[in-house]
Amino acid sequence: MVGKRIWLPFLIFLFIFLNTFESLAEGTNLINNPGFEDDLAGWTQSSFQQKGRISIDGEEPFSGGKAVAISNPEATDTRVMQEIEVEENSIYRISCQVMTRDVGSGESKLGANLSVEGLLVHSEDVKGTSTEWTRLEWFGRTGPNQTTLKISAGLGGYGQQNTGTAWFDEISLVRMEEVPQGVAPVELFSTKAASGTFPPEPNGRGGISRLDPKTLNMMVLGLAAVILLFIAAGMMAAGKSRASRKRRRGFAGRIWIPITGGLSGEDDRLKKPDYLIISGITLAFLLLGMFRLGNTRIPATYWDTRSSAGSYRMELDYERILTRINVFYGHETGAIEIRLLDPDEKLIHTGTIEAAGSFQWAQLNLDHIVAKYIELNVKTPGMDLYEIGVFGTEVTEPLRISPDPVPDSPEQGKFLTDEQDRVVYQPSHMDQMYFDEIYFARTAYEFLHGEQPYEWSHPPLGKLLISVGILIFGMDPFGWRWMGVLLGCLLIPVLYLFARKMFGKRIFAVAAAGLIALDFMVFVQARIGTTDIYLLLFTLLMYYFMYLYMASSERSERLRHLAASGLFFGLAVSVKWSGLYGGLGLALLYFSQKYKEHSTKKGHINTRSFLLDMALQGIGLFILLPAGI
After folding, report:
1. Angle 251-256-259 (CA atoms, 0-180°, nearest 5)?
2. Which of 3.40.1280.10, 2.60.120.260, 3.40.50.300, 2.60.200.20 is the CATH number of 44-190?
3. What pTM value is reported for the model?
4. 390: burial class by Cβ within 10 Å (0-12, 13-18, 19+)?
């Protein structure tokens, strides 16, 4: 009896010591109030359009006396967040316990999940109704100079809103020395410019938004250095060949608005230094704009489920532990069911993928399910299925998979596995459409194939310009973005000419061209497969030629400039209806100029000649000509 009393305290001490040692080995949980025992202290709340509710629930917590409950009566994205100080270039484990009730299913909806603000990557999500707590866990690596991380636990996600209720408890962020074998950590680096905009991508591969800040700064400084180099060269050449100038009357003498245009005394005609400066700035913009614009190798062959629906079965080389299935689909709607079978061909798991965009990778996350066969069943015909990628614990490379068709399988099903070298584990904007590309670039593809256009709210010219890039380079991210960069470069010489004509001094032209070349909004719009960059170019051109019309004195020149202004006004409206707003400014300038021309010395206007001129020129060049386009 005495011996038992001696051993009992020793065993208790040993148990406490081992558990303490284990917790020390794992590291300290950096989350403040991880179990919500202090209610929501340390946490911030967010709910898209304020549709969700966040509360503290003490009925069935995982541990302690409380847990946080997130309820979405309507489809929305609701979450709790906490910003934590972290170390750069370090590995962290992010985990929590979660339980759900009536959470919507479907690939287009995101269930209860853990995520990091600024990235679209997240943990596996939990949907439906669970009677027990489920552990979510994933690993990530911070980037250079990264000092903070904002952990988020929520129901729903960006573009994947959901309904139902989810409980979270014991949220944890722990620094690790290494990740478990066979697990690839997610890159946790994100810039504010990329936050909520680009799909996740390892640091340095996902375009300029994912670069190390030092690298990005060096690239911007490099671009500025190249621009300054060409400016300096142009100025030196100008200093050697500067000729005598004559003062002249410019724009200020032709309308009522007194500005400095035309009063500088410097000849506004372009010379060798101007061409050198324009070429240098435009080339620098073009090279940086083409940098990591998009991949040119994405799946190209596909199974058209509209013409041949049914089921298609594939076989792994041997029984494997599966963690994810990625499917690349095209530009139609529909839904597919993925069925996992064991070696005896017994069903062990099903999942559904619904089309939620165009030319994108859909992901079906799996909880380490052991399977031998994969069967893809078309639930709702319509999707163009290009390729399937199956991933196991070796998460970065797709598992070897081969067709194993059953009788009456669609012949086109073989295209699901014929381009495995183009499968990606973590898709990004480098590999698929994002933002409004799912409307504009998709419609450009449909124009090329004679199909019913999906996006019809704006005129077709912008989509037709995108289709030119697709026709040259193919239906891939580089192809549907290339024309935007090319025409975006034209903004630089146009604005240079505009400023050179308006102000008469080279320094103002250099400043205007340099500013637009370094404008990140213009840079981003040029690199997205949408139509805003074309609208901007044509709007700038229509005002440029209107200015030339107002500043010219020769009748034939004025008519050519006015016709060019009307032409580019028509092109702007043919890209987007919002080009009509730019036409209001043109009308104001045109009417004021005509009123000036037809006014007598006493300030009276010759009504007859004014109306006749307006009818012949205004209606013809700014109504009939644009309407013809």
Report:
1. 50
2. 2.60.120.260
3. 0.63
4. buried
